[in-house]
Amino acid sequence: MRAMRKWVATVTAAAAVATLALTPTASASPTQTGLFVTATSQVSTTLVPSMPLLRLHFNHVVTTAMLPALQVSPRLATKWEQIGARDVQAVPVGAATPSVSYAISLPTGYKCLATCRVVATHVVTTSVNVNTTWEEQLLAQLNYLPVSFTALATSNQPAKQVPGYFSWRFPLLPADFIAQWRPGVPGVILTGALMNFQSVHGLPTTGVVNPATWNTLVKAATAHQVNPSTYNYVDVSESSPEVLVLYENGVGKFRTFVNTGISVAPTSQGTYPVYLRYTSQTMSGTNPDGTHYSDPGIPWISYFNGGDALHGFIRSSYGYPQSLGCVEMPFASAAIVWPHTPIGTLVTVRA
């Protein structure tokens, strides 16, 4: 997947052009003092692997062998490529980190003899967009996604992005859930997988790639540190009677009757990742009539959408709407479900 390149013209050097045609004197010569060379530039607004980061156009012939390395912070290895007698481009050869802004010391003036040294610069910034397909590839390789990744090219670097395709690992999962997966398109399935990965590796479970998450993901892929757990999924049907099904690696392993929200406080339908868990908590809030409630000792809680959670709750019966938005179940059922709903586990509530 290759994004269209957008180039932005930047500053032309303010170096003294009058010195370009040097006149020999008794104390100096062009050979001794060198030639001042100015450079105009085009800089990419985003950094894409193997694509030009910037291009320079000189007012004199300059070869890549004459140029010092481009200075980028944080450090990023690049190489110069000759694209014309007076034109070069810098291409990244190191791995760039998504969600990071890079500061480039953009050369605008050189002093050249056999080689050139930078005498004038202008700092510009460019960033790396998150490559969703690459992120999906790595998470699939590590079994955090319900899909597998088949590479169509070989590489001795397990974390390197390669062409390939995704295949669904668990075809017995509900069709509505499977339909939510679209390769290369950010969605809740990817968010849940990333949150699970972050939780396993002790990172903040934001579901968003940042430099720490990306570096950890690359290291995990390189070391083949696969998901230590099964891929779990919870499906809640609000059809009568209301039923929860817990899937482990695509197989329905446990079913229980549940209660979802009443009409004035319904459980929101959709698919959501578990984001907070407690073995026990006092749950409090406001009833539809305006009175307040405070229920201590509610066990086996997995929050998945705002205040909606899976949890145990004592009722005389189960299987129809009775809660204020949560998915209630018998204590014994909640104790079975809770260990299989770590952070990032997806919960679907549907009609």
- Largest sheet descriptor: 8 strands, antiparallel
CATH class of the largest domain: Mainly Beta
Number of individual domains: 3
Quote the distance from N terminus to C terminus. Answer: 37 Å
CATH architecture of the largest domain: Beta Barrel
* Shape descriptor: elongated
Q: How would you name the CATH homologous superfamily of the largest domain?
A: L,D-transpeptidase catalytic domain-like
User: From the alpha-carbon coordinates, what is the Rg to the nearest angstrom?
Assistant: 29 Å
Helix residue percentage? 10-25%
- Mean pLDDT across all amino acids: 89
Beta-strand percent range: 35-45%
- The structural class is mainly beta
Tell how many strands the DSSP assignment holds. Answer: 19
Could you list the spans in which at least 5 consecutive residues all have pLDDT below 50? 1-31
CATH-derived topology of the largest domain = L,D-transpeptidase catalytic domain-like
List the helices and strands in order: EHEEEEEEEHEEHHHEEEEEEEEHE
Per DSSP, the total helix count is: 6
Structure commentary:
The structure is a single chain. The protein is mostly beta strands and 351 residues long. It has three domains: 7-20 and 31-127, Immunoglobulin-like (Sandwich), CATH 2.60.40; 132-223, no CATH class; 232-350, L,D-transpeptidase catalytic domain-like (Beta Barrel). It is 15% helix and 37% strand. It is built from six helices and 19 strands. It has helices at residues 30-33, 132-141, 175-178, 188-200, 211-223, 331-337; strands at residues 7-9, 35-44, 54-58, 71-73, 78-84, 87-92, 101-112, 116-127, 147-151, 164-168, 232-237, 243-248, 251-257, 270-273, 276-286, 292-305, 308-312, 327-329, 346-350. The strands form four sheets. Strands 1, 2, 3, 4, 5, 6, 7 and 8 form an eight-stranded antiparallel β-sheet that branches. A five-stranded mixed β-sheet has the order 13-12-11-19-14, sandwiched between helices. A hairpin with a 5-residue loop joins strand 15 (276-286) and strand 16 (292-305). Helix 2 (132-141) crosses helix 5. The longest helix has 13 residues, at 188-200. The protein is elongated.
